[in-house]
Write a structure and sequence with these properties.
Largest sheet: 2 strands, antiparallel
Helix content: 40-55%
Number of strands: 4
Structural class: mainly alpha
Oligomer: single chain
Shape: globular
Distance between the termini: 72 Å
């Protein structure tokens, strides 16, 4: 409610004081009855109707804590484990939004509660969004680096469209691939190999090498998404049905020709 000024009914709780968490300020009212109304409200929302950093006036009571720049897994007890990735929402911290690292880089897979606790305890040395990664402070709250919006449209849902009946859920990373057609695996891998060859032929320090590896990792994402989609079609039998239909049509055409 603090982020979206025109979304949903609310009023300020008269008992609220600045000593309370900022989230306790609003009391929600009953909203639209149907999900489509919520989707339409969010899809048509203008940039000036979004408050990216609503907590500034509350900082005197609740100072910003540096631990908020920790990036990785966090736990609630030992049962609930979720990724906390502040670099993906830099505008909420007053910084220009950049293209973040892949979540698997920030929140490594295969960690257990003990390794997560160790990572959280040593956040300043290894699991931390550094000042360099944060980038510049925003002039306008919605500022982004060049290329961020096309990246966002590729990996996310630009609009909250209603689900298609009987259509299985689609992973956000496959969305552009489903819309724009097939992925040319050969061209993508050829480009990645050329970039790696050029880097290997030069003189790289560790920092430059990490940048090259990260770029290769990102460039190969469409290939991974394409292969996942192909495997999903194959496992569902969709590809087999198409091949059988094509074979049947070819056989029928051949029979007609022989007559």
């Amino acid at each position: 409610m603090a982020h979206f000024k025109t979304f949903g009914g609310r009023f300020v709780d008269e008992r609220y004081t600045h000593d309370n968490p900022y989230a306790a300020r609003f009391l929600p009212l009953k909203g639209p009855k149907f999900p489509g109304q919520h989707r339409s409200a969010l899809d048509t929302m203008r940039m000036d109707e979004v408050v990216f950093c609503p907590y500034e006036e509350h900082r005197q009571t609740r100072p910003f804590q540096d631990i908020s720049w920790y990036t990785g897994w966090i736990m609630c007890g030992s049962a609930i484990i979720n990724p906390h990735l502040p670099e993906r929402v830099l505008r909420q911290f007053g910084h220009v939004q950049s293209i973040p690292r892949h979540p698997d880089v920030s929140a490594k897979a295969g960690m257990n509660r003990f390794t997560i606790a160790d990572a959280f305890a040593s956040y300043l040395t290894a699991n931390y969004v550094t000042e360099e990664m944060r980038g510049p402070k925003v002039v306008r709250a919605f500022d982004t680096v060049p290329g961020y919006i096309p990246w966002l449209y590729r990996v996310s849902h630009p609009k909250i469209l209603p689900p298609v009946e009987a259509d299985p859920p689609t992973h956000a990373n496959l969305e552009e691939d489903n819309v724009s057609g097939e992925c040319d695996v050969s061209e993508v891998t050829k480009k990645v190999r050329a970039d790696l060859r050029k880097a290997l032929d030069g003189q790289l320090n560790l920092a430059d090498a990490l940048v090259v590896i990260e770029k290769a990792y990102t460039d190969l994402e469409p290939v991974d998404a394409y292969l996942v989609r192909r495997k999903r079609k194959r496992d569902s039998g969709e590809g087999t049905k198409k091949r059988k239909k094509k074979k049947k049509t070819t056989t029928e055409d051949a029979g007609t020709s022989s007559l």
